[in-house]
Amino acid sequence: MSAKRNCIDIQAVEEQHTCGTYTKQPLVIVRGEGAILYAEDGDEYLDCSSGHGVANLGHAHPKVAAAIAKQASTLLTLFESFPNDQRAELMLKLTALMPGMDRVFFCNSGTESVEASFKFARISTGRTGFVAAMRGFHGRTMGALSATWNKAYREPFLPLVPDFSHVPYNNLESLDKAVSDKTAAVILEVIQGEGGVFPAAEEYLKEVQRICKERGALLIIDEVQTGFCRTGKMFACQHFGITPDLLCVAKSLGGGIPIGAVLIGPAVQNLVPGLHGSTFGGNPLSCAAANAALEVMEEEGLAKQAAEKGAYLMEKLRAIQSPLIREVRGMGLMVGIELKQKVTPYVKALQENHIIALNAGLTVIRLLPPLVISYKQLDQLAAAINEVLTSEISGE
Fold it and tell me: How large is the average pLDDT for residues 42-56?
């Protein structure tokens, strides 16, 4: 029977009116709490996607909800030309998290933060070139897409922004050859999420930073997915003692409310009024949500929780005796299970077992559960994966 709510057939309406750029799941979700999503019929699903890494605090966190409700009746929107209490508080919080990065540009999403970082790099260096990594993902707008590697995303929109090159990830020799006196910046993820949950090597990141400094290029680190406790630190680059020139963040910053930001280091120059802007960037509602979200991260020790729960989950996953598994890898609660064949049927099977997971490319199951997930729920997740990967499922 088709799901209904408020006398409309939700699934039928979305199928009729969708723009066509999304594959619709046969599952209508109407509510969330913690790590659980609730379907129209009341069934519970363990959310191990977190809305593609947004719900680090879980769904409907009461402190974030209260902050949103209070701010919604106080002041919703205000362009950044006018200072505001919520924005000022968020600026202080964010810059304190990354000492040495004392300026912030606010926007609404991860791809917008990447676009802003490209403009800031060009205006700061007077150069036009960018070096990105194969398998990297940075967004779907034209500039961010130019840095993204996957041809399925890129090819329908060619030609893209010129002067972008791609080198193998974790390959220092290739990057060393690619960075020249025309390079404005190198952009990297600390862990490639969409590309398969591949962590960077510590020595690689440190050498990339050295090369950039020596040649006058800026280092942009994209922490849109890895930021805000996901990997066991506030930011993944802190595992390696790396401070970039531009740090792109978004997703879980607002506790579920759209907000993005670029943290800016001292090497970035020439940022003057009128150079760049965002109508909704730094609006009081999003900033209030982000202020509450950051407080929750600290009060509930979510970085520590992510580190400990991630280690627990990966130990259980690595104990699964399945010939399908090639490798389990990740950091904190950002986990990839690489299989020896396509993962689509297994992701579908997990959903049939009331587990919502993601793919990362063709052969990796990606797990991004809320950091508030309980150990009992982690056991449920591991048991479901064990069942799905050790039972007979026909390949795609």
Answer: 97
pLDDT above 60 for 306: yes
Fold adopted by 75-299: Aspartate Aminotransferase; domain 2 (3.40.640)
| 71, 86 contact by CB (below 8 A) | yes
**Residue 6's pLDDT is what?**
62
- Distance CA(278)–CA(75), nearest Å, equals 18
Name 369's bridge partners.
Answer: none
- Establish whether domains 4-60+301-390 and 75-299 are of one fold: no
Interval 142-161: pLDDT, tens: 999 999 999 999 999 999 99
Domain boundaries in the chain?
A: 4-60+301-390, 75-299
CA 351 to chain centre: 22
Q: What is the mean pLDDT of the chain?
A: 96
Match domain 4-60+301-390 to its CATH number in 3.90.1170.50, 3.30.980.40, 3.90.1150.10, 3.30.420.140. 3.90.1150.10
Q: Per the structure block, which two tokens stand in for 366?
A: 């990606």
199 touches 166 (CB < 8 A): no
- What is the phi-psi region of residue 387: left when phi exceeds 0, alpha when psi lies from -120 to 50, beta otherwise? alpha
Mean pLDDT, residues 220-249 taken together: 98
